Amino acid sequence: SDVVKQRYIMKFYKPLLKRILNKANRIIATSPQYIETSIFLKELRHKCTIIPLGIDINYFSKPDKFVSEDIRKKYKNPNLILFVGRLCYFKGLEYLIEAMQYVNGKLLIIGTGPEEQNLKAKVNKENLNWKIIFLGNISNNDLPSYYDACDLFVLPSSHRSEAFGTVIIEAMASGKAVISTELGTGTSFVNVNGKTGIVVPPRNAKLLADAINSLLADEQLRKKYELNAKRRSEEFSSEHLVEKITNLYTEVVKEQELGVCL
Asked: Is the sign of the CA dihedral 29, 232, 199, 91 positive or negative?
């Protein structure tokens, strides 16, 4: 991830970073979007190799159906929306909270972080306690069941500090359509707008609500996205990640032996 919030350190960090990048034989970027939007990487795109992050796809495709059903019963509502992640400034949760005023559904928030108290205060202020539930950290064993139980997964990230968003892969591996934001990073590389879900501009609660409502209202479209999401998640398996990195190492070693320099 590029330095986004801590810009004051760039004066000292930039020369070191450029030196390291210039010296590297190859630079691994997790998405083509990040190469084109990073002021550091686009100048060195000739030595960048795109290798997306990967997860254990099978883990999220085999939820405990009994736990999933218990979750649905406990948070009974026409629609169940899920967020998973650290509660920090770049996740854009304040915009999702605002959007929930216009959504007929219940939002489950999994995770903890420095913005937790501010977010809870915002929920209280908006009188949304009855439809926004903070679950904190949950067991990894139960996480696939929460994905399985939800109708829709939303990652409303607001800043490009969200360089990739592996939770999107987790949701897609669980067969869920995704709503994410356009940050010029991996979020809109993994979640393909109009295919696996919807991508909206960041920091816009109204458009976020519109996207959520459109998918909740159109079950046929949502099911289409869910099927596509499940298929696309297979491209981000940990096996593919290991294979691509191993191939890259082999390629770089051969180039070194031949004296090739990019």
From this structure: negative
Q: Are 143 and 84 in contact (CB under 8 A)?
A: yes
DSSP state of 87: -
User: Residue 239 region, left (φ>0) first, then alpha (ψ -120 to 50), else beta?
Assistant: alpha
pLDDT of 116 reads 98
Summary mean pLDDT of the chain: 95
For residue 214, what is the enclosing H or E element?
A: helix 205-217
pLDDT in tens, 120-133: 999 999 999 999 99
Q: Which of 152, 177, 175 is nearest to 78 (CA)?
A: 152
Contacts of 149 by beta carbon, 8 Å cutoff, 6+ apart? 68, 69, 71, 72, 80, 82
β-partners of residue 55 are 237
The answer to whether the beta carbons of residues 142 and 67 sit under 8 Å apart is: yes
User: Which string of b and e fits 185-215 if b means at least 16 CB within 10 Å?
Assistant: bbbbbbbbeeebbbbbebebbebbbbbbbeb
pLDDT tens-digit profile of 40-83?
Answer: 999 999 999 999 999 999 999 999 999 999 999 999 889 999 99
What span, in angstroms and rounded, lies between the C-alpha atoms of 118 and 97? 12
5 DSSP assignment: S
- Residue 184: CB partners within 8 Å, gap ≥ 6? 33, 34, 36, 37, 160
Nearest to 67 by CA among 169, 148, 167: 148
Q: Which residues pair with 80 in a beta bridge?
A: 106
How far is 259 from 254, CA to CA, in rounded Å? 9
